[in-house]
Every structure is written in structure tokens, then in C-alpha cells.
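PROTEIN DESIGN WORKSHEET
SECTION A - STRUCTURE
LENGTH: 204
C-ALPHA CELLS:
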């Protein structure tokens, strides 16, 4: 048994990383791979994680930071039509929300929207780029309003201000960000495919 009887793991209930007391563990016979059952010190919810044992500077066996297995992390199933860098920004934003880092989450969402503006309207600032996207018909007026809100939330998270980014703001911003990219890339692509198939059938 490791000298340190706690493990660092993400608690989804508290939306933060905690040092949780280990209540039980199962170590693989031939490796240092270990499954741990821990208890969040704040909300006292059970957490199941995968980790490894290693020797620290004092030559004591300790747990490495655990990857949570249960409650199962929420996965974002983003369409491959969305560019990889944008998908990574969105995934990183979700990780920040899971760790309770609200301002970083909105900054990452803002960066994703900025990538969209740069790709579709090169050479423009984010604000003017969004206007250009609306003028081009890439986004409609409602999405333009959403994107402009995201831009302002991004500025709130990125710059010194007396206002704080809340959990509710961060989760709303992430939801809006995903909706924008699903519309621009996924739905637009599916509609284009529909028109091709319709034309191939000779439909009016």
C-alpha cells in the first residue's frame, strides 16, 4: 500500500481536481497499473480512477494522478467536418469546465470562433470577421448574435476586469460554440449533400 493514501482525481460534482482519500485499490500483478476507489473530500461522492504507482523523491510508493473512469467523463461527439484545431479548442474548453476554470473555457471558445472567422474571412479582426460571415451568409443573424456574445465573453475572460466568468456563463458559452460549429460545418455539409442527391435524382 502506498504511503500516501490519497490520489489526485477530477470530481465532476465539484467541477474541480481534488486530492481524494483512497478507499480501495486493485493493482495489476505484472505492472504498476492500478484501479482506485476514492471519495471526494468535499462532496463525499465515490470516484473510480485508473492510475499508476511510482516512487517519489523519498523512495515511497505513491499514486500518480488518476484518470477518472466513473462517473464516466462526458464526451463531446463533434463532427469530423469541423476542423481539427477547432475541435481541440472545444474539447479543451470542456476540460476547463470540468476543472472549474471558467475563464479559460470561454477564452478557448472565443479562440475557436476566431479560427472560424480567420478561415472564412481572412485578414479580418474577430468583430469584423463575424460581420463578414453574416454578410456572406455563412451564419445567419441569430448565429451572428450568438457569436458576438461569445466574442464579448472571450474578452471578459481574457482581460483584467471586475466582472467574473461564472460556471453558468462558461457552460452556456460552450453550448453556443458547439451549436455554431455544428451549423456552419455539419448542417451546411449535410444540406449540400442533400442538394447533390436531389439533383442526381432529377428532382425539382
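SECTION B - SEQUENCE
RESIDUE ASSIGNMENT:
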Amino acid at each position: 500500500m502506498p504511503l500516501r493514501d490519497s490520489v489526485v482525481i477530477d470530481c465532476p460534482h465539484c467541477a474541480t481536481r481534488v486530492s481524494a482519500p483512497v478507499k480501495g485499490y486493485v493493482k495489476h500483478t505484472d505492472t504498476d497499473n492500478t484501479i482506485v476507489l476514492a471519495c471526494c473530500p468535499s462532496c463525499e461522492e465515490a470516484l473510480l480512477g485508473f492510475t499508476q504507482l511510482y516512487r517519489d523523491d523519498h523512495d515511497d510508493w505513491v499514486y500518480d494522478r488518476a484518470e477518472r473512469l466513473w462517473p464516466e467523463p462526458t464526451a463531446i461527439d463533434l463532427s469530423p467536418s469541423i476542423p481539427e484545431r477547432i475541435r481541440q479548442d472545444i474539447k479543451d474548453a470542456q476540460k476547463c469546465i470540468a476543472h472549474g476554470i471558467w475563464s479559460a473555457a470561454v477564452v478557448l471558445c472565443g479562440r475557436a470562433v476566431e479560427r472560424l472567422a480567420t478561415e472564412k474571412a481572412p485578414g479580418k479582426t474577430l468583430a469584423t470577421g463575424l460581420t463578414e460571415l453574416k454578410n456572406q451568409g455563412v451564419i445567419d443573424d441569430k448565429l451572428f448574435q450568438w457569436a458576438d456574445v461569445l466574442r464579448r465573453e472571450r474578452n471578459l475572460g481574457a482581460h483584467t476586469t471586475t466582472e467574473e466568468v461564472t460556471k453558468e456563463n462558461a457552460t452556456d458559452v460552450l453550448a453556443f460554440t458547439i451549436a455554431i460549429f455544428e451549423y456552419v460545418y455539419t448542417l451546411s455539409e449535410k444540406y449540400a449533400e442533400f442538394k447533390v442527391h436531389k439533383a442526381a435524382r432529377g428532382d425539382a
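SECTION C - NOTES
The longest strand covers residues 16-27.
The mean pLDDT is 84.
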